[in-house]
Amino acid sequence: MLMKDADNNPHYESLSRYGSPDGSTHDHVVPERVLLQFGRITLTVTQLRYSSFLLLGVALLWPWNCFLSASGYFIAKFGADSPLGKNYSSTMMTVSTLTSLCFNSVLSTRQNANYSKRIFRGNALNFSCFVILALIELIDPNLHSTSYFVFIMLLVLLSSLGTALQQNGCMALANVRGPEYAQGIMVGQAIAGVLPSLSLMISELIYSGHREKSSASIVIYFAMTSVITLLAGILFVVTYKIDGEPGVSSTSDEEATASSGEQNSNYVPFMTLFKKLKFIVLSIVMAFVVTLIFPIFASNVTSVHTDWKLTSDPIFIPFAFLVWNIGDLIGRIACGYEKLVITNDVKLFVYTIARFVFVPFLLMCNLDSRKGHAVIKSDTFYLLIQFLFGFTNGHSLSCAFMNVGPYVEDNEKEAAGGFSTVFLSVGLLLGSVLSYIFVPLVG
User: pLDDT tens digits, residue range 193-202?
Assistant: First the structure.
């Protein structure tokens, strides 16, 4: 619940207060319902619900990070010096973010929908995309033609459609439940950032120099994405059956659209939401605009040491991704502590803009274009900057999404969920376009 302090600044009355089944909050504590008990270990409805949102968060970002963390593999596959290899990361991000923006914009206007069904459909689409990609890499790992590059981008597009469906549904339900569930989604997304980069780095350590084994590891990598998506869907179904879906229309998207009279009476206008959430959603945009500069540096900054296997490019580059993602995870977990959540929307917006300070420091590191002539010749310094860059990303985004629900009225929470994902897509798109500017600077 959002309250006002003596200085008229918004703050949460409690981040640990759970909503009632109808989505409202009350001053009394609702008794916990225990599902399982084994000795001192118990599983409550609240724990199951939070776990479901957390795993959905993993499934939301895992496909994106899977494509992103596999950049090294695809760049090598298409040729590091070829136009396809050089532009893989930026093209992938642009296709993904442009698709997300368009589809999230459409979904945000189709309110009074069955948000659970959107999550189911999104899971199924992502599951299918990565099963197909794993099978293709298994059957013919030597594909590196332009047509295959285009096909990968098509899978990126379809995966982005699936993720948009999941995002829209997840944020609508999380806003109804309470800010702690939005934080659960954000933590899950950070876990999805850590695990793919960690698994990719380990596979490079094990299969370094063995093309066939490296191809086999990437098949497992893509197959694991499908497994994670499937598990998230299963847990959500189980939670839905046990706990139900609060405050969300049981109609389908098609039925919601057909019932125009009912939809119009409950429709929340764009400007109504923007007036209440402008600094929060602009914080989301700026966070991603700054953050999407990071993959360009992480893919092109190399170690200042060249005589050790662990500092070779195939290991050091995934390690830099891992360090950034660990910082991102810790930043999101930190928002589980109420005192660390920035609830003043103006301060949050300034905080996200201030993150541009990391860019000049990254430009001083050992870029591939001037290898051996870095301004700051220190791997430790570079990795520390990446860690702080990741931490501030996770922290600022968690604060922003946790504030969406408390800043609007109860009957606006679902619409605000879809509204916030539109600006998430705007930030991703602007950030991916901006990344093209840095390609000639760092490459």
Answer: 787 677 767 7
Span 246-250, mean pLDDT? 45
Helix-then-strand count for the chain, H and E: 17, 4
pLDDT digits 0-9 by tens, 141-195: 888 888 889 999 999 999 999 999 998 888 888 888 888 888 899 999 888 878 7
Residue 270 corresponds to which tokens in the numbers above? 């764009």
Q: Residue 220 and residue 243: Cα distance in Å, rounded?
A: 34
Please report how many Cα atoms fall inside a 13 Å half-sphere around the Cα of residue 327, on the Cβ side: 20
Distance of CA 180 to the CA centre of its chain: 17
* Residues near 217 by beta carbon (within 8 Å), at least 6 away in sequence: 203, 206, 207
| The amino acid at 322 | L
CA neighbours closer than 13 Å in the CB half-sphere of residue 320: 29
Average pLDDT over residues 5-15: 45
Q: Compute the chain's Rg from CA coordinates.
A: 22
Judge contact between 174 and 182, C-beta under 8 A.
yes
Q: For residue 301, which amino acid is it?
A: V
Cβ burial of 363 (10 Å; 0-12, 13-18, 19+) is middle
Q: Which of 133-147, 210-224, 236-250 has the highest mean pLDDT?
A: 133-147
Q: Which amino acid, one-letter code, is at 169?
A: G
Token match 């910082």: residue?
327
Query: What are φ and ψ of residue 441, in 5° steps?
Result: -75, -30
| Structure tokens given for 53 | 């949102």
Q: Which two tokens stand for residue 419?
A: 């509204």
> What mean pLDDT is predicted for residues 204-225?
70
Phi-psi region of 178 (alpha: psi -120 to 50; beta: other; left: phi over 0): left
Other CB atoms within 10 Å distance of the CB of residue 21: 11
Across-strand partners of 11? 3
Contacts of 50 (CB under 8 A, 6+ apart): 180, 181, 184
Q: 274 phi and psi, to 5 degrees?
A: -65, -40
pLDDT above 50: residue 18:
no
Q: How far apart are CA 165 and CA 117, in angstroms?
A: 9
**Structural domains in the chain plus CATH codes:** 32-245 (1.20.1250.20), 269-442 (1.20.1250.20)
**Cα atoms found within 13 Å of the Cα of residue 208, Cβ hemisphere only:** 14
Q: In which residue are the tokens 């001037």 written?
A: 370
Q: Which helix (H) or strand (E) holds 35?
A: strand 34-38
